[in-house]
Fold these 3 entries.
Entry 1:
Amino acid sequence: MENPMRQKAVKLARPGFIFLLAAVVLTVAFALAGMGLLVWVGAVSIAFIAWFFRNPERMAPDIKGAVLAPADGKIIKVESLDNSPHFPERCNKISIFMSVFNVHVNRIPFSGTISGIRYNPGKFFSANLDKASLDNEYNAITLTTDRGKRICFVQVAGLIARRIICNLKPGDRVAKGDRFGMICFGSRLDIYLPERARVQVENGQKVRAGTTVLGMID
């Protein structure tokens, strides 16, 4: 699936346009009113918004069976689970924490078909806490590979984040590395892999969406 966030000409993620426009309009208004200090604040805000919503081009590695990171950030947990509300069988869960300093555009971890999407409104605990996975607002996306394997990746809102963006719907065909959405202003993304997946990352490791290999599946 190709969506507008994948166009090469776009250097700023689309959700950032409205924030950037608002900051520019306010800064111009402050300048016309002769409010020097607020003009400086506005200029800094414009720079931060443009930087936060950056949308870099990346090339997904052509490695058969590789599951790629769906988000930039740091691995904060790798664990085996007997089951989960997002994956009702034994699985491997990898949690990625995105600070405000990371690129926040999310990418598809593996090629296949979107077989389910489940949004749940919730609380806004700090995204690095374990309870954030199930208690916070989240958007769980289930993907089925061409060989019938199931992968679930969950966008989790954080303490500051108040907007989860997902441009997918059930039935969509997607390719590894495609952009599919983002979470604004700090958050977390959990990915659930089959039990037999060979995890290749560890706690504390930094990862990049669409390029870092999290694990291998058959």
Entry 2:
Amino acid sequence: MTLKELLNDWVSTINISSSNDSSILGLSLDSRDIIQGYVFIALAGSKQHGMAYIDQAISNGACAIIYDPAGIESTLVEQNSSQIPMIALDELAVKLGHIAARFYGKPSELMTVIGVTGTNGKTSCSQFLSQMLDDCGIVGTLGWGNWNNLQKTLNTTPDALEMQRILAELLKTNKKVVAMEVSSHGLDQGRINGVAFKGAIYTNISRDHLDYHGTMEAYLQAKLLLLNSPSLAFVVVNLDDQYSDRIITAIPENVAIWGFSVKGKTRSDCTCIKAENIVNTDDGIEFDLHCQDNKHKIKAPLYGDFNVENVVTVFTAMLAMGITESEAIKRLGFIRSITGRMERLGGKGTPLVFVDYAHTPDALDKVLFSAKKHCTQALWVVFGCGGDRDKGKRSQMGRIATQWADHVIITDDNPRYENALDIVNDILKGCKDIGNSTISRNVEVIQDRTLAIQSVLTRASAKDCIVVAGKGHEHYQEINGVRLNFSDSQVINDALTARTR
């Protein structure tokens, strides 16, 4: 593909001689990754413009530079002595996904791409779909590839250029379906532009990322951008969610609507699937699944009422994709638990421990509510909040922890560049008994996360239940810009081993 072919539709005339319009071998946003024959794409970043690195890109062999003219002086381009093409493109970040899709052969149009968005449940639902669907790849928080063999991604939703490269790689490995987590950041920043979505799943909408979006309305509007995909054929909506009416109202008329509920809710304008009679057992969850006039008894080795929602979500999505009811029921039997998502450790003579990524008020509420059902004695919770993120949710999470747990241990999460004690104090503002202005007596602070977990595993009885929340699958703790090796699961397993010696 030549530069003229790549940019046709976005640039009306390109002054490029035939000798300069050679085949493009690759695209990159990072000047360090440029090699001979690559095009360097210079975006207007929040902190620095990509044009600051054109000298390195040219030195490494860039055959052309496509740049956003916003925020740079014209002299920076005029003074460049290189003979390679320099193409200015307004709103380049918005157009990048479409440009990248063209370069990689529009891979998403050759697969069935299902976008999974919402505050909680995106990872679980995308993982479950990949477990149950033939030749289904994943792009999300845990990485991309096969559900049991993932390569790391920097963000839940990769940048627009990386997204198209990943989709092209999945197509090369004969993936027919892709279950993609779609974050509010990814939607707002145009990272999924150029992706042809066949289906969209809305798990739930609750408070998260207000440090970025500012308001819940702005957060919701970002989520609704997924509905703008012209290739969309169906949308799956959680009817129990407080924003379900807003979501359904925004769905285009020619798109099929599927709804699901664990609270008996139905609507006349969509096909509805319901779950009821939920039972939590030592082996997982059991419930009745109602589909049309049929009822099915479902058992899954998963824990927590919210996982009933996740199972019903993916079942509904399978029906929306055209899989028969009987086949979809059969495939539910393939579901397996996911690392860091209500992951069960301990039990059988030691306390039952759940590790979960819950880092929002709604997620923590659901996890503790579910864990309480497995407790025969006391419920413990160990959690903190991330630094440089939404501060308003911290006291809410403190209140929720105090409401559900018999013992609350506030610890460090990922403080990042923020003072860890300030984060703890924000959480403690919500850790008060009803009608009392003092901190609840069942709350203590152990900032060292390892010591916090070890302390609880030492003190808890064999019949107690412990929730370690906030980090889930993460294998690091970020402090002052440094990522230190750390795993909740590893610390728990080591403490359980020491306890049984």
Entry 3:
Amino acid sequence: MQKNVAVFFGGSSNEREISVITGLLAVNLLRGSKYRVIPVYLRPEGGMTTGEYRNVSDFAKGGRGKETPVRLGEKCLLSGKRGKVFAPIDCALNCCHGGIGEDGTLSALFTYYKIVSASPEAPMSAIGMDKTLSKLMARGLGIPTVRSFTVTEKKWEARESVLKEAEAFGYPLIVKPAKLGSSIGIKVARDEGEFIAAMELAFRLDSVALVEEYLAGRRDINCAACRVGGETALSPLEEVFSGEEFLTFSEKYETHAGRHSRIPADLPAELADRIASYTRTVYEALGGRGVIRIDFLVKGEEAFFNELNTVPGSLACYLFGRSLTENRYFLISLIEEAMRNPPREKETLSSGILEKGVFAGKGRKR
């Protein structure tokens, strides 16, 4: 019997539009394979729908055709007020960039509804989505990071102490919203005035800002990891080139004129091996499942952990294959691995305290 793969994309994050692109790429690559593909769109206003989604332009125009509202049930999608089974889900593929799609919320729902997922689980997703947590994780694993400090909105209310800390770090500094991706909201601050403006922008988009030392002349190196055949597989290293002070959203997704990359990256063998080793360490330490991409900053012979992407752009297909056929095979391998090695359900213990009469009335102990 043909198995069903549900591809989830969209959502309400700042990266929703990029998620639509990644989701439809996955949907169209998997169509015509041995799986029945069910595209599931997370609407910005809430809820999920499915339909015969095929083209990015359909979402740009708002004319997505006939849609069916659905919701998650145990190992299935439900529809209608009475919760009729719309379709079983044999495997889910998460293509939601940012927000509740990438921060572990959707992954946790898959776990709750006992849906096998070919994407990272909730703990890794939550750590990857928060740049402050991912830096703590990297440091704990002995992986270098650039100097940084974190500023909350509450701390920013007494900004004089923050301004002194920034001055002590030394300009220029780079300011990032802690839980956004795709370079959204990132600014380079060369002096106090630009720093204040960058912080104000960050807090319009997020509740926490990460302030980092700016590495002039750094190189942007990416490495992806996945699990195939029970073993961790690493992609070739990619160097992404930028014509700006950092790799911007426009360079990534709009102009393409200033963005290009080299695969494999031209690095000394020892440095390349070290970056690959860091990637493997993170993936395995966090219980790797599905595909991730880690972005590094390289300055001279030093490599610094920068970001962990648990729903990387295009699901990092291009790092594991250079043709559409190879990209399709890569996605199928992720799905097969997930179904072949689903998370094992563990025993749940019960104390029986509710039957022992220890508590009475409104939770008061007798």
